[in-house]
Amino acid sequence: MTTTPLIVNALGQLDNPNAPRSLAAAGDLNASGEQITVDSRTLTEARASGLTAVNITLGYVMGDLPPYEHTLHEIDVWDRVVAEHPDDLLKVTTAADIHTAHRDGRIGVIYGFQNAEAVGDDADRVAVFAQRGVRVVQLTYNQANQLGGGSMAPGTTPLTALGHEVVDALNDHHLMVDLSHSGERTCLDAAAYSRVPVSINHTGCRALTDLPRNKTDEELRLVASRGGFVGIYFMPFLDAGGHASAADVVEHLVHAVDVCGEDHVGIGTDGPVTAIDDLDAYRHRLAEHVARRQEAGVSAAGERADTFPFVVDLRGVEQFRELMRLLEQRGFSSGRIEKIMGRNFVDYAERVWQA
């Protein structure tokens, strides 16, 4: 492809992992917004990559922090980050904002949760999050919570009564219901129950790699059949041995398109644009981080100290252009590639974030 299309990362990061602050936080279970580094390198490389918008994770994911209070604090932190970089960043609350970011050469920042623990037992809190600009709410992380089962809970764990209430509230306030990390029964329950199309913003295909973080064809097909969106990640779970390659990303995208159709598949890398410079040093920190996640009971099958939580040959500023090149080699048309790289997410956002 000769031009860079609109590129939307359905789940990613804005961070310079090489900066001192981010390095210091690398082993933490749940790094806060203050520990992430949005510096000139972060912004320059994100823009150079062609990235148009990214759904970032903010708020409570795991650990001992008070979920609701911590989440509101994180929203404040990211509001400050965006306000400090008006020429580079734009807070996204509508699909039109993504087009504005593309036109202006800025990065659209989509506020999202990777755990709805902050809702507590009060579905009315969804209204607060919506008013503060949150646009994506993932129901569970790897473990079960008050809404349903995560990928490491028993696969038969259903969407709870409160989970149904929260899905209703998310529908009412036009927020995305994200079923990444959910267990199979919870995913199927929520996708069937929601009045509004749902998403799985970062996952792989279990038909290719049988790990719990990946989704079955039944889950993928149901989400797509109801007008939803599926994003494929750049994660080790794409390969049974844990050493996923760019070729694995392509194969999972091909399978997802075969199952869901080309109008419902995109990317959710689960990583930043800026690559880690010193992989040897990172290996030592990774072992500590994986051990902490396992000890806390929040890790997923396939996380190991010898597997990077990213695809080594699909990192850095060229990651999106390299993926487009590989998809083109695989026989995908320019129109299909444009859909996968961002247009499908924007079309889905228009179906959900309506006024």
Task: Note down, in words, how this protein is organized.
The protein is an alpha/beta fold and 355 residues long. Helices cover 41% and strands 12% of the residues. It contains 12 helices and 9 strands. The chain has helices at residues 20-25, 40-48, 67-84, 95-104, 125-131, 161-172, 184-193, 217-225, 246-260, 279-296, 319-329, 334-352, and strands spanning 7-12, 51-57, 89-91, 107-113, 134-138, 176-178, 199-203, 229-232, 265-267. Strands 1, 2, 3, 4, 5 and 6 form a 6-stranded parallel beta sheet that branches. It has a 3-stranded parallel beta sheet with strand order 7-8-9. α6 (161-172) links the parallel β5 (134-138) and β6. It is globular, with a radius of gyration of 18 Å. The two termini are 34 Å apart. The model has no long low-confidence stretch (mean pLDDT 95).
